[in-house]
Amino acid sequence: MLCFAFLFKHNFLLSLFAIPVCSFYNYLINKVLFTITRFKIPLRLSDFDFELPSELIAQVPPASRNASRLMVVDRQTETVSHHSFNDLPGFLRNSPLMVLNNVKVTPAKFYGFVEKSGREVDVLLTSPVINGTCRALLKGLSKLRAGDVLNFPPGSLKATFLSREGSYAVLKFIESDDLSAELSRLGRMPLPPYIKRGKDDSPALNLLDRERYQTVFAENEGAVAAPTAGLHFTPELLEKLSQNQIDTAYVTLRVGPGTFQSIRTEEITEHIMEKEAFEISTENLGKIRTAKDRQQAILAVGSTSLRTLESINLKDMPQKGGICGRTGIFIYPGHVFKNTDLLLTNFHLPKSTLFLLTCAFGGTRLIKGAYEEAVKMKYRFFSYGDAMMIL
Fold first, then answer.
1. Which helix (H) or strand (E) holds 327?
2. Global pTM?
3. How high is the pLDDT of residue 28?
């Protein structure tokens, strides 16, 4: 009764006449979810757990980018169907605007050892190297002392540990003839921890990761994780979508190490996301604004594109120019989506921020059911896995 009293109090009945009939159901659900969030009805992390056999966690990409499977979840009919990723164009009716994240993953993972003790270390650079200095995540950080030198074979690449900033290390690389080229040569792709990689991986596997843990439209450097929903696209599929009158817009969200961060609180709303930098050019922001003005559907390709779209308020922005900023938006059930109508995403970890985002968009009950079916049908999960389209 509390929910409905709130809806009537806010002129709910009058507002119905301003809503297209086909949108009424989603509008009602969003209103009720907003009420739940407003009155602090607890969202428990344990409610977003599920069993996942380890063999369903994809360790390598499929033979070709578009060889993945595609599960289609229809929110209006509450149905799930199974397809190939190549079938995607058939589900993009009425020419939605497709928004992709064009960030480029930096080969920022390094294996080395502490010169003084010989202890092995693995390092993930989390910021650009400026004048030889950067921040990094480093296992065994508490054992390091200022001045310790880290060696990264093969070659002469070395870094000095300067200090600790929270959970990060500040490193100063010892200048070489071409530090940038050396970093690029020795760095490996920073794959998520559930994809098993190590310092003794074969050169062929490292080359495969360099190619396939990067979208074909990657352009702007600065991510430590790929926008994985975009990994399924080939140049040929993008061209086919263009021929089918599907326009594209690009955003850049520089995915940071927070993307791997677990939720450590049972009360979901207490979790705080690390902020990440984003930018949208004048041209691409204009496309998004035009789509909204024309009531054209907007398809977010991946959670990073969706989080970027939901971080901006088009009504309060100048009509000209692009935008850049930082976002720590955390999307969980109860979020009212303002700039996203469709979502293409991969299958995510249980109890993760990305699974919560998917439940927020598709509806918790429907998405949980879809994930149960994905496990039964042996879909491949996570970064190198299959895709889900939510209509």
1. strand 323-327
2. 0.87
3. 59
